[in-house]
Amino acid sequence: MTALDKTKEAELVARVKAGEEVACARMMTWAERGDPRFAVAYDAFHADLGRARRLGITGPPGAGKSTLVERLALHWRGLDRTVGIVAVDPTSPFTGGALLGDRVRMGELSLDKGVFIRSMATRGVFGGLARATDDIADVLDLNGRDMVVVETVGVGQSEVDVAKSSDLTLVVLHPGGGDTIQAMKAGLMEVADIYVVNKADRPGVDRLVQQLTDILDVRDIPLQDRPPILTTVATEGTGIVELAGQIDASLAEREADGRLAGRRGENLRRRIRRIVDGRLRQDVWELAGLSERLDQGTAGLESGTGASVSAYGLAEEILSDYRERRHGETQA
Amino acid sequence: MEQPIRVLIAKPGLDGHDRGAKVVAAAMRDAGMEVIYGGLHQTPEIIAEMAVQEDVDAVGLSILSGAHMTLFPEVKKLLDAAGADHVLLTGGGIIPPDDIDALQAKGVGRLFGPGSTLVELVEYVQAEVGRRRAAAGSA
Ligand SMILES: Nc1nc2c(ncn2[C@@H]2O[C@H](COP(=O)(O)OP(=O)(O)O)[C@@H](O)[C@H]2O)c(=O)[nH]1
Ligand SMILES: [Mg+2]
Q1: Class of domain A50-257
Q2: pTM
Q3: Atom of ligand 1 nearest to the CA of A233
C-alpha cells in the first residue's frame, strides 16, 4: 500500500512544510477526520503558524462566493501571493453524501501550483465544522500559503462560526437573493467585516446597498468597526481590485491597532473550547460506553412496554455514572 | 465512525455534455459518498491535480469520445507520479471489452462499458475502496 498511510507525523509535517501537495492533502484528511495523528503533528508545527492571512467568506447559496474567490485568487496570484482555498458545502441529511461543486467555478485556478483548493462537506467532520476548517486552514498556513480563504454557505450557526474564525470576514449578498432580512436571520449581519454586494449587473443593487446602509446606521458600531460595503460583478471581474485593496487595508489597519492580535486570541480561545467540548463528548459517549446506558434506559419505549422516562433524570444518571467511573480511574 | 468515501468525478476530453458524469455523481452522493464534481473538458493534468488536492479514494471518469486508451493511462501515470498511486481509477463510457482488459493490465481499475448499471459502478467503488482501506490499515 501507499507509503502515505504509514508516514510518521513528523515526516508528514516536514513534507507539508516543503510544499508537497500529496502530504498537504493527507494532513488535511487527518484533520477532517479527527485522526489522533493530527494532534500529534499539530504540536510539532503550531509555532510555525500565523503567517497566512485568513479570510472567511460566507453568504447565501448562489450569491457568487466561489466565483468571487476565484477572481480574488487570480488577483493575488498577479501580486505573486500564494493562495489556499477551503470550500465547504452541505452534506445531505438524508444520505450522508455530498456533492461538492465549488471547484467547477474555480476552473481558471486548476493548474496553478500557487493555488491549493480543498472541498469539504459539512458532515463527515468530527467535533464540529469550525474545528475542522480551522485545522485545515492551519495546514495551508504551514504549507506556506499567503492568503487562506474559507468559503461557507451562510445558512446556519456552524457555518457562520467558520466564517468568524478568521482574520477578516466577508459577507457576500446579491440582489434577488431575498432581502437582508434573510441574512439577518442567518446571523450573517453580526459577523461581517466587509459587505460585498455581488451581481451588481443585476437590478436591485442600489436598493440592497441602501438596506445595508440603513441597518448599519441604526446599529451602534464604533466608526472603525463599521463594515464597508463594496459592489462587484464577479463574473466580469468588476470591483475585484477595489475589494482586494479593501481587504489589504482592513487587515493592515487591524494589525497596526492591535485588533488583529485580539481577534486571533479570541479565535484561539473559542477553538480550544471547541476541542475540549468535542473531547468531552467523545469521552462520555465512546470511551465510557454510556451510549449503552442511554439505550438501556429507554428500552421498551418504542414497543410501548416501557415506563415513561425523564429526560433530565436519565441524563443526570448518565453524567453521574460518568463522573464516578472517571473518579475511579483517577484514584487507581 | 465509518469515514465516507471521497470520489472525484470528471469528464475529460472535448466531446459533448456532462449529463452522464452528473448522473454518476448524483448516484454516488445518494450512496453516501462525498463527491467532488470536477466538471467537463478537463485535461489529465487537471484531473490528477484535483484528485491529489482532494485526497480522494477514487477517481471516476466518464469518457465517450473514444479516447479512453490514452486518457486513462495518462491520468494513472500522473497520479502515480504525484505520489497518489493508492487512488482507485475507474469510470465508464463507450469502451469495448478488449480495451477494458488492456487498461486493467495497466493498473486502471474496473471500467464500465455500455450496458453496465450505475448500481454496479457504485458497488464496485464501495467494495474496492473498502478493500484498499483495510489493506492500508485505515478503515
Ligand atoms: N450575473 C451575475 N452572475 C454571477 C455573478 N457572480 C456569480 N454569478 C453566477 O451566479 C451563480 C452562482 O455562483 P457561485 O460562485 O457558484 O455562487 P456561490 O454559491 O455563492 O459560491 C453562477 O451561475 C455564477 O456564474 C455576477 O457578478 N453577476
Ligand atoms: Mg460556492
Answers
A1: alpha beta
A2: 0.92
A3: 27
